[in-house]
Each structure stands twice: as structure tokens, then as C-alpha cells.
Amino acid sequence: MLFEVTSETPSRALTIDDIAVGDMVVQSVVFDVEKYAALACLARDRAPVHDDQVFASQRRFDAPVIQGLAVASRFSRLMDMYLPGERAILERVEFKYHRPVYANRNLLYCCRVHRVLKPLRVVGLTLSVSVDSVDHVTGQCQCLIL
Length: 146
Prior knowledge:
Blueprint: E1 2-4, E2 24-30, H1 33-43, H2 48-51, H3 53-58, H4 68-72, H5 74-81, E3 88-97, E4 106-117, E5 122-131, E6 134-145
Parallel strand pairs: 1-2
Antiparallel strand pairs: 2-4, 3-6, 4-5, 5-6
């Protein structure tokens, strides 16, 4: 089942029996300057590739690059509120960064269930962040359902 969320979508408290392989949650997000600045302030990552247009251009980037963990941070909302939902505890996560992510681009976040181990109450998710149908970040995680 595909579940598309917005910033106003209420959270879900799914049980292990409510979750099936193939279930998916997606959300479209634009990291505008305000969101980017808030995450950069929290991370305190002052590397010039994130703030300096000239430095980024000299390294063959189109613009300053949003910090990788800032991009990945949006998965916390999708996993904890929607799939697997409010009863989920993140046990492990892994990300691969394939392409840079720039501010003011429409990012499509997707979490898809690839494994459900009901006796252990464990759910495995495949994660992706894409821009214009091209993956920029991919990953996997495992959650325990309480």
C-alpha cells in the first residue's frame, strides 16, 4: 500500500500485523534556505562546501551541498510517524550518498518495507531520496515494533 503524506498528515500507530512487505510511505520536501539554515545550525558543520558558492563551484558542484545527515534526517519523521509508525524504535540505519543535494530542489523521500519478521516484531525498510526520479541517497534500516 502506498501512503503519501504532507506536513499536516496525522501520525499512525501501526502494529506488526498492520505492516506488509511492499508497504510504502512517500513525502515530497523542498529544503529551502530556512530549513537548510536550521539544520546547519544544529549540526554546526561549517565545511565550506556547504556554505561557500565559490568553494563548491571550484569542486565541481552546482551550488553549496546540503549536509548528508541533514538530508537523511527527514527519514526520522517518516519512520517514527508513518511507517512503521509511532510504535517503532530505530535499531540501525545505513545510507549511501550517490549525488549531491542542493537547496530549493524538490526531494522525494520514500520508505518501503522489504522485510517483516513478525515473531521478532522487526521491520526492514529500503530508503531513498530522489530528485526528478534519480536517486541521490539510498539506504536501509531496521526497526523494532513495540
